[in-house]
Amino acid sequence: MTAPHNMTASDENLAHVRKSLKHDSADKHVAGTATYIDDIPEPEGTLHVVPVWSKKAIRANILSVNVEKAIQVPGVVAILTKDDIPGINDCSAAMGDDPVLAEGEIQFFGQAVCAIVAETRDIARRAALLVDIAFEPMTPILTQEDAVAADTTVLPDYQFRRGSPETGLTGAEHNLSGVMRIGGQEHFYLEGQIAMAIPQEDGGMFVHTSTQHPTEVQHTVAKVLGVPDAAVTAEVRRMGGGFGGKESQANQWAALASLAAAKTGRACKMRLDRDDDMIMTGKRHDFRVEWQVGHDREGRIRAVDLNFLSRCGYSADLSLGVNDRTLFHADSSYFYPDASIRSRRLKTDTCSNTAFRGFGGPQGMLAAERLIDAIAITLGKDPLDVRKLNFYDGERNVTPYGMPVEEHEVMHDLIDKLEASSDYRARREAVKAFNANSPVLKKGLALTPVKFGISFTLKHLNQAGALVHLYTDGSIHLNHGGTEMGQGLYQKVAQVVADEFGVTLDKVRITATNTSKVPNTGPTAASSGTDLNAMAAKKAAEVIKGRLVEFLCAEHKVTPDLVRFENNKVIVGEKSFRLAEVAKAAHMARIQMSHAGFYATPGITWDRETITGRPFYYFAFGGACAEVTIDTMTGEMTVDRVDILHDVGHSLNPAIDIGQIEGGFVQGMGWLTTEELWWDEQGRLRTHAPSTYKIPTASDIPADFNVNLYQGRGNPQETIYRSKAVGEPPVMLANAVFCAINDAVASLKPGVVPDLNAPATPEAIMKAVRYMRTAKVSAHAEGGAE
Amino acid sequence: MRETIRFLQNGQVVELTDVKPTETVLDYLRLRKRKTGTKEGCGEGDCGACTVALGRLSGDRVVYQPVNSCILLLGMIDGAELVTVEDLAEDNRLHPVQQALVDLHGSQCGFCTPGFVMSMFTLYHSNGAEKSRKAVTDWLAGNLCRCTGYRPIIEAALTSCFETADDCFSRRSSQTAELLQSLDDDRDVYLPYGDGFFASPASIEGLAAIYAQHPDATLVGGATDVGLWITKHLRSLPKVIWLGRVEALDRVEETASGLLIGATATYQASHDAVTSLSPDLGELWRRIGSKQVRASGTIGGNIANGSPIGDTPPALIALGATLELQNGGTSRTLPLEDFFMEYGRQDRQVGEFVTGVFVPRPTINQVFRCYKISKRFDQDISSVMGAFRFTLSDGVITEARIAFGGMAGTPKRAMETERALIGARVEDASSWASALQVLQSDYTPMTDMRASNEYRQETARALLVKALMEADGTDPAGLNVLKRREAENDRAA
Lengths: 786, 493
Hints:
Chain A has 786 residues and is of the alpha+beta class. Chain A contains 19 helices and 27 strands.
């Protein structure tokens, strides 16, 4: 499936980097010996913490919390309320608006009011049902429309504006507008939220936490307990999936476990039940997008007006960065001469939406694809032609936020290659022929691009640290601030460090991410884990190696160019030593063999206030071509074939990168098809378990699924071995599936833009089909309107 | 009477006396034995992370089935061999299915992986499963993975699961069979626990007796629903009677006139017979739950707990099935549709239990079709499930039986529509157009997380149209995306 990777000159000395090596924990995964937090042997007397929330209240003033019955249950040791918090009752990432336990009011269905601490988890769960929460209900604000009417936001509006979109729209030959709804998404990490806190002397706390952001857990626990950051250590060896859902959302459970541990003096574990997890934690933001586009008769865009109404939930959480990234990606890969791209961060009485792989980008890009599809359908052109017509290009290569798309030729080349390898044009004809002869089933085809900006748009997060020790037996201890959630970060960094020291991987000991080893880290997010941490680890290794080289040169009277580290050996001129021998000798000579490496991404100058500077170090590109079949009587849909070509620069590990691409695509496909979050009229989430919330399963992926890495010149920026980030961009490859469904629906009446919303469930597809049956062709300018 | 449960693990007989009636196999493994390889993902049997294999005798062969240990009661593994992910490697050498997952990069976060390993282990031992991508995806549809996108896992299964089994289990299979034989006694099992008990009677008389004595006990077939009462609703069920050991209650008997399915026959066990009765019914069976759920779940349980979202009752009702019940020594039968009185209430007397269902075979002049509509094809609950049996004479409908799930608080017949169809010609759409309108008056479906009432009404009509078109000879591959996909994949292969 993977073509051999182009080698660069410097690749010749690489024994591990660029190789499709297995995940460092693969053998343990399959044997059941990989340790997740719930598998760590519990200290004697470990207690279990379960949250209590009202099954009835949506938004309400709390009148009283009666724990009498619960506290009497044998085995219940304590009940935590907000009054037990010695520090600050907040577990937010930054904004101070996420209470660990509700303060006076319930802000959404599922908000934790108190927590039971008991000898067993079963006792705690049962006791939680006995807590009586009396409340006075308030009228909840649930939808974007509710929030707009009430004018409630969690953060100020934000906008990118270029040129004169108003005159651009009115002056354009054609003008289209519509409204599109884009649903949210539950992370459904297979390992739910969990933390185990073990009290230490002098008020300290050690927290095993399933988090993408150990530093934030450390700071949150310290803040809640009212102790210095230095008193708290957070550690995570691996997560059973994260996807953004354990970036800020892990804080609360670590804080509650720590609070319980501080109060009882015993180890305390908190593992959420799956239903609680799905109800209480944040999800991908859902949107109402109001769009308008002006274009010429060829389909070239003249101006756009995009208004993103985002449901943020009851608090700000990470909504600033998420919604900014929506705006950063509302261009997809297209040049908008004049543009107004606005965002409202609406406050609703629902769980606080959060990071999810793509971080707002997917919603922005999907809206852009709707514009293109609408133009193509109304002009009767192939959508791919309209896409290519609007691609960033030589003269037209600056985004609405002022950053040039320097690699636009990569984008063009990649899409051209995919168009050829997927046999797009011939299949377009085949789809037309099929549809002409098939009254009930209709096929659709789409080829869509991905361009994703790599870097945190919050500049200070673009830094990382690593800690490398060389021991006197030649073994290497590797630690860094990045966390492992399955993406293969630990493996990639280990490959880099092994090659730096010229040793085999078994000499490199991968260790758990721990705030006492590498402090003040950012989250493992924004696809940046490898870019940042592998670079920091490489720098640490280089420094240690440099000291060894200096020592060896002095010792053996050679020049540095004659010292090489390879094949578990250190070559010094004509001599060869085992690394252990060198390490031992260096130690005897009092050479420091430990170093903390540090890396900060260069060239990022973004200023959010003035909307100037460069937000991204570079872009990652990709493309996907999807073919689907829909049933116009029931709305059922199959994805029949998918071809993907994706740009990871020069890959550090093609197998791991392919895994990220395939997994990201399927996750995106789920978001846009079967995964529907459904709240009832009262505001209760009713899809809170895998019985009702349907992520893709093995039979949902196409049998014909061709995934390849783009063979290019590598990352023009000096990233780690010229690779590119791969975590998030593939999610947006799934836009091809959504656009293909749209294409199939559109075949019912040429010239009419379907009113298809995401996710395209059978019901959503039928709604679009019904719209086509009643819509008039002349009404196309209203296409997609509600 | 036996006051212990006994099962095999790693070739050793394990005997337990202290079994809480509601203790799950997963809790036994993780909390009691601290064997943490088996994971809890959802606690409701929908994600498969907790999958373990159960070996039972079929004739003199040991057959392994994947089951969700999170909702399987510990007492239910009595007489079986329990295999978990830790048991597979030999002398630090990975099992072939494990090695294939490693070689093909089939794990990322690894949390779902032990469950996949165990499902693949049962496929590896399935002896004679056809080697196809469809067989694999069907076998693995009950294991959710959020990281890989499944492609490498499917390839690992295709690579490793269809070889002749050669592992420690195959090598000691005759010894295992002997041990399982030795555990297979005909004694009633009764494990007292506090004021309650876990019981598994060996005979129908034993069942009748203990249920008559304890009519407040909970009858358990496969626990694929009762398991959730325990793990999710936190109901305390002090008295549990498991039906799985009752002799002959799991019978599946094919006769010329139809099919008798015993109350404890699983979906898995009845699949072949059901398919031979009607391919559509077989396909419906295949899409119920997952491999794990079908290995545990029983037809009797699906009927008896009266769930409005159960998929078998509408199909069985349309086929004219009759239900058999027993109370003490007395039996009775009734048309299946009469059993479902209203939402949450069935025609089951105190002390009465379901013994089986008889499904008449469609005659030569009858057309039977059923359709399941859900957000996801596999392992999902229907938003609408429609089943149709038309009796035809020269293309004219002389009788129609139509039942829907998801359209009312119970599985329910479309009586008005059935009447309106009589006399219609299947080839003449205008002759049945009025019946489509009537269908709206037969049901007032609700809106919930699976679908709106409008969609349900519209889809119910669409399914009736499809059934009539198929009765008229329209190729199903032109009417059904799954059949279309299969046809395309077959052509490509």
